[in-house]
Amino acid sequence: MKETVLVTGGAGYIGSHTTVELIGAGYDVVIVDNLSNSEFGAVEGVRKITGVEVPFEQVDCTDKEAMARIFDKYKFNSIIHFAASKAVGESVDKPLLYYRNNLQSLITILELMRDKGVRNIVFSSSCTVYGQPEVLPVTEQTPRQSAQSPYGNTKQICEDILRDTVHAYPAIYGIALRYFNPIGAHPSALIGELPKGVPMNLVPFITQTAAGLRECLSVFGDDYDTPDGSAVRDYIDVTDLARAHVVAVDRMTGGKSKGNYEFFNVGTGKGLSVLELIAEFEKATGVKVNHKIVGRRAGDIEKIWADTSFANRELGWKAQRSTGETLLSAWNWEKRLRGIK
């Protein structure tokens, strides 16, 4: 009998790709999403890729009564919790939205896990929990610094909530995956990153500029202490990131967890600057990207990339796709969206 996994925020960018990987690994999946920052088309894309009529429930994870009905309707013992507001810049402008949505959704899920006897949760965390680290690359033992944004602070607080909950309720197991910067799209180009309005992340802005939807890409700052002055990040292919979630679920369902609460860095182990990423896109696609330098953006950190050796060793997982391959997949997704040949 197949295990079933509840995926909150499963119509979102990472959630939809993870659903595909879960199904490919033999799991059944139920998607819950309120579609506040996603579209049902992603669910349709997942169904086309997998050939599975994945159940979908349009529910807000902060609504405990509605979520309780989901727990009663479907039988599952594992949850991957993606549902959250996720833009650094927006969180600076709308901190209360981020604190209410991100904290309350996790608390609701954990309360229901306790009450309904659900055992495993993978939490969608972020490298923003490290703030601006003093030493690079960051390992899992790197001290967390003060968050640079309300978004980052919600991830720190949510990790603490998860850690304290599994300590108080030993029947619950939790793994926090600290993502670096996911980019790219599924090779089929049937699902990918689909921002509503002006993109908050770099790659959709690159692809929209390349497609002519936007006149110019703004590079936030060229005066950072980096080789070319632009901010440095660890960019990981979204399908590689999705596979890490499958491995994390496997770890818990297979009884391989080392303690009730674990956390892992999920990145490539390589830092690329914003200007380097633009150059990589142009090289992979042959399309020039009009860009200009503007002032720094509030909430951004200067540079961060992962030491992934612990995750590689413990999970038996590592990032595989090249940056060029990933950026080409993002461009193919953008072209499909815009009807570009």
Task: Give an overview of the whole structure.
By secondary structure, the protein is α/β, with parallel strands linked by helices. It is 41% helix and 16% strand. It is built from eleven helices and 13 strands. Helix 2 (41-50) links the parallel strand 2 (28-32) and strand 3. The radius of gyration is 19 Å and the shape is globular. It catalyses: UDP-alpha-D-glucose = UDP-alpha-D-galactose. Pfam families: GDP_Man_Dehyd.
Describe the structure using short key phrases.
single chain; 341 residues; alpha/beta; Rossmann fold; UDP-galactose 4-epimerase, domain 1; 2 domains; seven-stranded parallel sheet; two-stranded parallel ribbon; 11 helices; globular
